[in-house]
Design goal:
mainly alpha, 4 helices, about 80% helix, about 0% strand, elongated
C-alpha cells in the first residue's frame, strides 16, 4: 500500500476512534441529559448508530485534514513518518 494512502487511513481511523470515545463520554456522563435521552429511547440502537456515525465522521475528517495540512512537504521528511 502506498505510504500516503496509509498515512491518510491511519489518521482517519485515529480520528474516528477519538470521536467514538467522545460520544461514549457524552452518553456515559449524561451531559445535559443526553445519556438519559439516548438510553431511554424506544429506538436505542438507531440513536446510538447515528451518534457514533456522526461523531466518528466529524472527528475522523478533522484529524485527517489536520494531519494532511501539517504533513511535511519535503520528501525526505515525509519518508521519516
Amino acid at each position: 500500500m502506498p505510504k500516503l494512502i496509509r498515512f491518510v487511513m491511519v489518521n482517519t481511523l485515529a480520528g474516528v476512534l477519538i470521536g467514538w470515545v467522545v460520544a461514549a463520554a457524552v452518553v456515559y456522563f449524561n451531559i445535559n441529559g443526553f445519556g438519559d435521552l439516548i438510553l431511554g429511547s424506544s429506538s436505542r440502537i438507531a440513536a446510538i448508530f447515528i451518534l457514533l456515525l456522526s461523531f466518528g465522521s466529524t472527528f475522523g475528517f478533522a484529524v485527517m485534514a489536520t494531519a494532511v495540512m501539517l504533513m511535511p512537504v519535503d520528501k525526505d521528511e515525509f519518508d521519516k513518518l
